[in-house]
């Protein structure tokens, strides 16, 4: 009885292992190159244009202030030998005040730009992920991996879905 139980268990185990190896061969894997997808989709250019337009006025103000600081610093270098100490001190104070103003306006602007970029990128990323899922389901893929995080894949057995994803996202 023990012998028949052992042989039944071994037969069951062998059957399960064969089933596992057969399903491993049937596993369909796709890969996507996220960097290429981001480069090729028109939504990224749209995001960039939107952000440029949204922050153009404030960026110009910051650039003007930077130009004014450079001008005053160069003026100080050129004319400091002929200036009185009071003029030098006044110009130093003026430049320091302008630099402080730049820091007070520049940091919040940078933070706001980064926050808006993240918001817009999250929207685009959702479009991409939805497109990947649709392409994977349509192609009956069992798994889709990101190229950058995959150490190795055989291009003969793994399909690159990046172009299909770009097409899908571009139509939206």
Outline the structure in words.
There is one protein chain. With 172 residues, this protein is mostly helical. It has helices at residues 2-25, 34-40, 42-79, 85-138, 162-170, and strands at residues 29-32, 143-146, 159-160. The chain starts with a helix and ends with a helix. A three-stranded parallel β-sheet has the order 2-1-3.
Percent of residues in β-strands: 5-15%
Q: Overall mean pLDDT score?
A: 85
Model regions low in confidence, pLDDT < 50 over at least 5 residues: 5-16, 18-23
Order of helices and strands: HEHHHEEH
How many helices? The count is: 5
What structural class is derived from the secondary structure elements?
mainly alpha
Quick one: how many beta strands?
A: 3
Instruction: Please estimate the helix content.
Output: over 70%
Placed side by side, the strands forming the largest sheet appear as 2-1-3
Rg is: 31 Å
Task: Considering the chains and any ligands shown, give keywords for the structure.
three-stranded parallel beta sheet; 172 residues; mainly alpha; 77% helix; 5 helices; 3 strands
Gist of the model:
The chain has 172 residues and is mainly alpha-helical. The chain has 5 helices and 3 strands; from the N terminus they run αβαααββα.
